[in-house]
Specification:
Among the domains are: about 5-90, no CATH class; about 175-265, no CATH class. The protein has 10 helices and 6 strands; from the N terminus they run H-H-H-H-H-H-H-H-H-E-E-H-E-E-E-E. It has helices spanning about 5-15, 20-35, 40, 50-55, 65-70, 75-90, 135-145, 155-170, 175-180, 220-230; strands at about 195-200, 215-220, 235-240, 240-245, 255-260, 265.
Length: about 270
Amino acid sequence: MGFPSAAAYARERLGLSPRKARALVALERKTWEAPALLAPYRQGELSWLRALAIAPVVREETAAAWIARAQAVTVRRLVDEVEWVVERRAAGVSAAASEPPPPGTRLVLPKRQMRAQEKCPPVDAEIIFFAPASLAVLLREVIAAFAKPLEPPWRGFERLLEHAEAEWQGQPRSRDPVFARDGWRCTVPACTSRRNLHDHHLLFRSRGGGNARANRITVCAWHHLRGIHQGRVRAWGTAPDDVTWELGIRPGCAPLLRLHGDEYVVERA
């Protein structure tokens, strides 16, 4: 068609990033396997992002349940639930066709197997990855630096991973139990930030709020300082599972969104 690549075609002719174009193609192919997903997606009842999020787990027999869940919760919660189902399925805990977990389920993932069992036979397979040439050269040099003379490259790669894990484990940890309880992530609905976390008091201490963990919740610096303390975001309730959020607060107007945890609160007339 006269374009140097499919990516160039997507950018210049369709006005889409190559990543989004690939995602839309994958989503279209998924609707062939689960036709029940097609109608809500085509009619705009389900955004392409939410439809893509449930693509790894949706089947024709479970499509209705997953579509309903996708319409009821934030994308963040939806992605967490899909990951939970996929991990449990890989561990043999869940069936191939699994419905969403019950609302409010604590999503504890099965413990991952990080290395081969000691009794497993040695593997001589080659690890293949795709990356910019400069990064590939750098990684190969680092692997070679961690390998001893006459050792295969995979042993150097294993030592590199062991070194990275040791460095990570050696980093100082925050002693705040609230961060660990909330999974080291901002709890404001739809926010996925894991950086610059603050310990926020749901009922401000200036208004009599105490330091009990039920009155404290994890929020990122932006939502804490620019959202809550500037009046754009409001939160109340009991942490961690009974917190109501109002987002997009404006003088004299209803908030743009109201959620209980990660579930949308539907206003009834």
